[in-house]
From TrEMBL:
This is Translation initiation factor IF-2, chloroplastic. Keywords: Chloroplast, GTP-binding, Initiation factor, Nucleotide-binding, Plastid, Protein biosynthesis. Gene3D superfamilies: P-loop containing nucleotide triphosphate hydrolases, Translation factors, Translation initiation factor IF- 2, domain 3. The gene is infB. The keyword Endoplasmic reticulum does not apply. One of the essential components for the initiation of protein synthesis. Protects formylmethionyl-tRNA from spontaneous hydrolysis and promotes its binding to the 30S ribosomal subunits. Also involved in the hydrolysis of GTP during the formation of the 70S ribosomal complex. Belongs to the TRAFAC class translation factor GTPase superfamily. Classic translation factor GTPase family. IF-2 subfamily. It comes from Platysiphonia delicata. It comes from the Eukaryota.
């Protein structure tokens, strides 16, 4: 094995070692021999005019240009070498694995400076954080691609800027499209789902609406205990029905508390929760009752109550039958497949027709047990407490049959019933826990709002550390107002909660901070000549605000357009007053009281401010304000007629001498002139005389002279006299 290094053959070894490829450099390089002459020549070119003193300040700055050029050339040379490397299978060499150990590696590879390692690690961390930041920004802007790139999913009202990002269409194109359709908007203007769907379809995409609540629940289930034993929970019983059919009176009879006296106008205007304990056959049962409003405007509240219900009580007045909100509630019950009981109330009244009610319910496939159906029908009188006990027994039997359960060991899930701002405590969310256990300190997410729970307050005002399933609590700790009806979930940590909130598409809008307000244009029209009633609306809760906007949108606006400049939750502020002054808007408050300082400012700036506690009164006032903007219109009522007998001049003016043939002629009334049954003139009767005396009116069978702006009278012209009768203003 002599001259091994010069051998061109591969050795045949008895104990073969690891064989790898050896690179074959295709380039040739000449190495210049360095001698004394070249060194002297190079040294002569170096600038020797340097200070002999070594200044510490110049220590890191002292770099010669030649050194820089050498480094540049060296880098270029290395890059060139890397590009020219080609692997050749003929070039092989032997690696001794016995020598391939940690010591040899340390000897061959010199350790790098700690400073360099730290710098690289820092750069790496920066790159990773930048990547995460880009991902977070992309998620927060909803730039994630859907499974179907042509399908645009929107969960609620959205502003133009966010919609343009979803469509990948410039904001100007959307604004131009709306402008051509008579709708003037800005980049931060919010459009509702109906308008958003039209925009999406116009740009060739498919529009779909999705509830983010279920996706939140799915995400939360990843961090919950899935295998805990289920336990029985209290049933949630929602009372539904038309306004004034006795829902609150029924609960008053059950709870033995005068609830009606606590409500303005005796009507329910929000979802209210009551905990009830019942005793039957020495057993105690606990129920949770939800009282829902029956007025048309509170549709969203009824839907929220139906969604979280375990059992639905449909209350129908025996003397009134099925009404619009009754039918609406029936649709919710059937769609959600809720176990339900039909409660026919006011059976003590006269002129009741229970068989007719059952016939109307049969049209929706709701049949009583005696007719082969599966729905219990209970006839009661809530006022006289007749048969209420039978109803409660039926509720207990139905709940035992359904066996409502929950997992108290998992992270909590539930629904936001209402949210509002408190002066001292901040954001408060009325919520009901549907599953799991909610604890103080939990990180909770509801739509685009998240927070760490600071306090939990029960229905009775007691602070607690946790809330079990089917418990109503007030949650303190949200970063902003969560949307009424939003699903909430508990998340493992605050970072994950923040990320989940950012990825949510629940509506907030850039011009709406933390869901506290929204800016809908109730009606869009291409008729720019329509008069507008500008409004600034303040309400106590999001649910109430939603109901007011919904009720206003139902008002006909063919003659006067309602334009909501701003609508938000909370008390009236100085900013609201400034906005009302600059926009010449009407200030409306619902279920709030204006402070004395606000009243002073409204008088100072001559701003109209009205507050209401009843939605009926609010709507009546808005309608009245709209009617005041409509111009007066008149009908013409015939009061008499006359025939021209003669025509003569008086003071160079033509006078028609007439005989009143029917009714009477009145001065300054509206007249129409006909000749041979052809209409030729209409105007005002300026002067009416008998002989030379001015009179106000001339009755039938009397002669008179009339003058007006018409001077082409002829004999036998027919004059018809009309009164202006003011039309009743309508919207």
């Amino acid at each position: 094995m002599t001259n091994i290094h010069n051998s061109d053959q591969v050795l045949q070894l008895k104990v073969p070692k690891l064989i790898i490829f050896l690179t074959n450099n295709k380039y040739s390089s000449k190495i210049d021999i360095i001698n004394d002459s070249t060194v002297k020549e190079n040294l002569s070119q170096i600038n020797t005019n340097l200070s002999s003193k070594f200044d510490k300040k110049q220590k890191n700055v002292f770099i010669h240009n030649d050194d820089l050029n050498i480094k540049k050339n060296k880098n270029k040379f290395l890059k060139k070498n890397r590009k020219s490397i080609i692997l050749d299978q003929e070039d092989l060499f032997e690696v001794n694995s016995d020598r391939l150990n940690d010591d040899s590696i340390e000897n061959v590879i010199k350790p790098k400076s700690n400073k360099i390692n730290k710098q690289k690690k820092k750069n790496k961390d920066v790159n990773v954080s930048n990547d995460n930041l880009d991902a977070n920004l992309s998620n927060s802007l909803n730039l994630k691609d859907d499974h179907d790139s042509n399908n645009i999913v929107i969960q609620g009202p959205i502003n133009i800027k966010d919609l343009s990002l979803k469509l990948r269409v410039h904001e100007a194109e959307i604004i131009t499209y709306l402008f051509l359709n008579g709708i003037s908007v800005t980049v931060n203007e919010v459009v509702n789902l109906s308008m958003a769907s039209k925009i999406v379809e116009h740009f060739g995409f498919k529009f779909s609406f999705n509830d983010v609540g279920q996706s939140l629940i799915n995400n939360s289930q990843k961090v919950t205990k899935e295998y805990a034993l289920l336990s029985t929970r209290r049933p949630i019983v929602t009372v539904l029905g038309h306004v004034d059919h006795g829902k609150t009176t029924l609960l008053n009879s059950i709870i033995k508390n005068n609830l009606i006296d606590k409500e303005y106008g005796g009507i329910t205007q929000s979802v209210k929760v009551y905990d009830v304990k019942l005793t039957d056959n020495f057993s105690t049962y606990e129920l949770v009752f939800l009282d829902t409003p029956g007025h048309e405007a509170f549709k969203s509240m009824r839907l929220r109550g139906a969604k979280i219900a375990d059992i639905a009580l449909l209350v129908v007045a025996a003397d009134d039958g099925l009404k619009p909100q009754t039918i609406e509630s029936i649709k919710y019950i059937l769609h959600l497949k809720l176990p339900h009981i039909i409660v026919i109330n006011k059976v003590d009244k006269k002129d009741i027709n229970i068989p007719k009610i059952k016939e109307e319910l049969a049209e929706y496939d709701i049949l009583p047990l005696e007719c082969g159906g599966d729905t219990p029908f209970i006839e009661i009188s809530a006022t006289l407490n007749i048969n209420v006990d039978s109803l409660l027994k039926e509720i207990i039997q139905l709940s035992e049959k359904q066996k409502f359960t929950a997992n108290p060991d998992k992270f909590a899930e539930g629904s936001i019933l209402e949210s509002f701002l408190d002066k001292k405590r901040g954001v408060i969310a009325n919520a009901i826990v549907q599953d799991g256990t909610l604890k103080v300190g939990n990180c909770v997410v509801a739509g685009q709002v998240y927070g760490k729970i600071k306090n939990l307050i029960t229905y009775g005002g007691e602070k607690v550390k946790y809330a079990c399933p089917s418990t109503f609590v007030q949650i303190l700790g949200f970063s902003g107002l969560p949307l009424s009806g939003a699903s909430f979930v508990v998340i493992n940590d605050e970072k994950e909660a923040r990320q989940l909130a950012l990825n949510s598409n629940d509506y907030t809008g850039n011009n709406i901070k933390n869901n506290t307000s929204f800016n809908p244009q109730l009606v869009s029209t291409s008729d720019k000549l329509l008069k507008q009633l500008k409004l600034i609306i303040k309400s106590d809760t999001q649910g109430s605000l939603e109901a007011v906007i919904n009720a206003l949108s139902k008002i006909s606006q063919s003659k006067v357009q309602l334009y909501v400049i701003n609508a938000s939750v909370g008390n009236i502020s100085n900013t609201d007053i400034e906005l009302a002054f600059t926009s010449n808007a009407l200030m409306i408050g619902f279920n709030i009281e204006a402070l004395s300082s606000i009243n002073y400012l409204t008088k100072k700036y001559d701003i109209t401010l009205r507050t209401f506690n009843l939605i009926y009164d609010l709507l009546d006032y808005i309608k009245s304000s709209m009617l005041s903007l409509i111009d007066v219109e008149y009908n013409l009522a015939l009061v008499g007629s006359a025939v021209v007998q003669n025509v003569f001049f008086v003071s160079k003016r033509l006078v028609a001498g007439c005989l009143v043939s029917e009714g009477k002629l009145k001065k300054m009334s509206h007249i129409k002139v006909y000749r041979n049954n052809v209409f030729i003139y209409e105007g005002l009767l300026n002067s009416l005389k008998i002989m030379k005396n001015d009179v106000e009116e001339v009755v039938s069978k009397y002669e008179c002279g009339i003058m007006c702006d018409y001077n082409s009278w002829e004999k036998n012209d027919l004059i018809k006299c009309y009164d202006f009768v003011e039309k009743e203003k309508t919207l």
